[in-house]
Amino acid sequence: MTRLPSLLARALAVLALAGLVAQPVAAQSQGPSVLRDAETEALLQDLVDPLADAAGLGSGAVDIVLINDPSMNAFVAGGQRIYIHSGTINEADSVGEVQGVLAHELGHITGGHINRMSEGMANAGRISLLSTLLAVGAALAGAGEAAMGIMQAGQRAALGNFLAFSRTQEASADQAGAQYLSEAGISGRGSLTFFERLQSYEFRRGISQDRENEYARSHPMTGQRLATLREGYEADRAWAAPDDAALQQRFERVKAKLFGYLAEPERTLQYYPIYLDTVPARYARALAYHKDARMDDALAEVGTLVSLEPDNPYFLELEGQILLESGQVPQSLAPLREATRLTGSNPLIASMLGHALLATDDPANLDEAESVLRAAVGRDRENPFAWYQLGVVYGLRGDQPRARLASAEQQVMSGNPQAAMMNAQAAEAGLEPYTADWIRAQDVQLQARGMLEQMAERN
């Protein structure tokens, strides 16, 4: 297989995951972390489902993954899964803005743009290969400087070809997103507001808006996208449709919750000062106080929230979490049990309940802990925390093969394939052949082996 020159290869590695925003991407030794929160995931799913229906994919067909990154961005990377940065939630003011972003990313999914990325790469590769052959010929003829010029020109042409291909895909995703918003009866006002916000974001960061530099971008100019979309949105029958008030309320709470969790406590208290008595403000402050080890203040804020809405499972979840993490383990069980019940055993909340039951150090709680944790991983296998806790349960029961299997599950999701392989092999050796767990141990080994092969290829 022909290798692309290093300059182009590096550019493609970044652009392959480009989503809504064209901006410099800093190289990182480790990727950004994924944020898991039951309330946030439920909201994002409710935001994308009507759009997925409009796109012909169906409710529940598209997953949303929240990435811990302060920049305004979203992307797809294959499959029916959208990755959205926490910075997008923080910068947006309405559900309409977020749905505009999700609609655009759905356009990439339905257009098969990630799968078609190889087409753009192949075209760029052919240009680059031709320039390489010409450069070799020039070098053999003794024209070293000419050979270098040909190579550099070829790299620029290849990159320009790929960027033009990417801009075409982005424009296509814009139009598809507008169609899905319209068919779902959602106004494009939020989408336009987000693009205006994006344009301001680019101005602040010195990202060129000069049309002469458009050829160097993976996305069309934001101003051009705004002008194109505005005409269609304003003529659309859904233009005057109001935002869903219930979804907007949930969005404001989730936004405050994420802010309180991610920001330094001092910054949260500046943004949500104590004289604000709204639910979002109390939510954010409860998390800020918790991070700052001001447990009495945190419990006072969350206690007020629970008194306002006694059946809100997410307020109860936070109350249980604060109690658990402040060492009041027995007191944490009641709110966590109720939150688990109210959400129909949401896997993330059930995982915390399982952890709290184990933290009591009471053998009488092992059966309940095993039950809730097995239910959690049964509904959400991508939950390393639940797998770890389940492994603890099996270890306490003396069931070492299943403890090793749970550990293997946790390690393969935590990016440690070598340890996952070792534990899965030990589990397989100790489990009864042809049982479900024995077969799963083999599956984990295959998954870990694939990860190790990919790591070897990268090195």
Automatic annotation (TrEMBL):
<dbReference type="InterPro" id="IPR011990">
    <property type="entry name" value="TPR-like_helical_dom_sf"/>
</dbReference>
<feature type="signal peptide">
    <location>
        <begin position="1"/>
        <end position="27"/>
    </location>
</feature>
<dbReference type="GO" id="GO:0016020">
    <property type="term" value="C:membrane"/>
</dbReference>
<keyword id="KW-0479">Metal-binding</keyword>
<dbReference type="GO" id="GO:0004222">
    <property type="term" value="F:metalloendopeptidase activity"/>
</dbReference>
<dbReference type="GO" id="GO:0046872">
    <property type="term" value="F:metal ion binding"/>
</dbReference>
<dbReference type="Pfam" id="PF01435">
    <property type="entry name" value="Peptidase_M48"/>
</dbReference>
<dbReference type="GO" id="GO:0051603">
    <property type="term" value="P:proteolysis involved in protein catabolic process"/>
</dbReference>
<keyword id="KW-0378">Hydrolase</keyword>
<keyword id="KW-0732">Signal</keyword>
<feature type="domain" description="Peptidase M48">
    <location>
        <begin position="40"/>
        <end position="231"/>
    </location>
</feature>
<keyword id="KW-0645">Protease</keyword>
<protein>
    <submittedName>
        <fullName>Peptidase M48</fullName>
    </submittedName>
</protein>
<keyword id="KW-0482">Metalloprotease</keyword>
<dbReference type="InterPro" id="IPR051156">
    <property type="entry name" value="Mito/Outer_Membr_Metalloprot"/>
</dbReference>
<dbReference type="InterPro" id="IPR001915">
    <property type="entry name" value="Peptidase_M48"/>
</dbReference>
<keyword id="KW-0862">Zinc</keyword>
